[in-house]
Amino acid sequence: MTLTATRILNLIALLCVAAVAVALISQHVFDLRPCAWCVLQRLIYLTIAVVSWLGVLLARLPGIRRLAALVATCLSVSGFIAAWYQYTVAAKLFSCDLTFADRFIVKSGLDAHVPWLFGIFASCMDARVNLLGVEYAIWSLALFGLLALLGLAALLRRA
Fold first, then answer.
1. DSSP character for 68?
2. Alpha-carbon distance 40 to 57, whole Å?
3. Which spans are transmembrane here (predicted)?
4. Residues of 104-118 as b/e, b for ≥16 C-beta within 10 angstroms?
5. Is 119 helix (H, G, I), strand (E, B) or coil?
6. What residue ranges define each of the domains in the chain, with the CATH number in brackets?
7. What is the separation of C-alpha 44 from the centre of its chain, rounded to a whole number of angstroms?
8. What pTM, to 2 d.p., does this model score?
9. For 7-39, how does the pLDDT look when each residue is reduced to its tens digit (9 = 90+)?
């Protein structure tokens, strides 16, 4: 079975939804509270999923699948940068207040309107948590890297 651009975009979307599902289970079942950078990455994952599935649904329009793959790749790179920043800088700060992630999520109103998904409940330092011995931020960084590579593969593949 060869991976077509459509299958790759579906895989990208499913991986993003799975990542957010794991984050929500961690938060609501295991009481691991997210910081602003965690929440920003959730938003990026969900945006990548929506863009990828729109690329699949609107694939009959010329260039839409490629555009979706390009946008998903760019968003994945931005998520990679956010995860890298969280791991290298924000996780060492006592507070995420007034960082880009905090300002963006608060100004968007997402934390107030959908707190179960986008609520900021911890500082970046407090949100440093390991899953199977690896920090969440590193897992996210790796997944965003994989998503960027898959996005490039979808961009270069035929329908």
1. H
2. 26
3. 12-30, 42-60, 67-85, 136-156
4. ebbeeebbeeeeebb
5. coil
6. 5-156 (1.20.1550)
7. 4
8. 0.92
9. 999 999 999 999 999 999 999 999 888 989 999
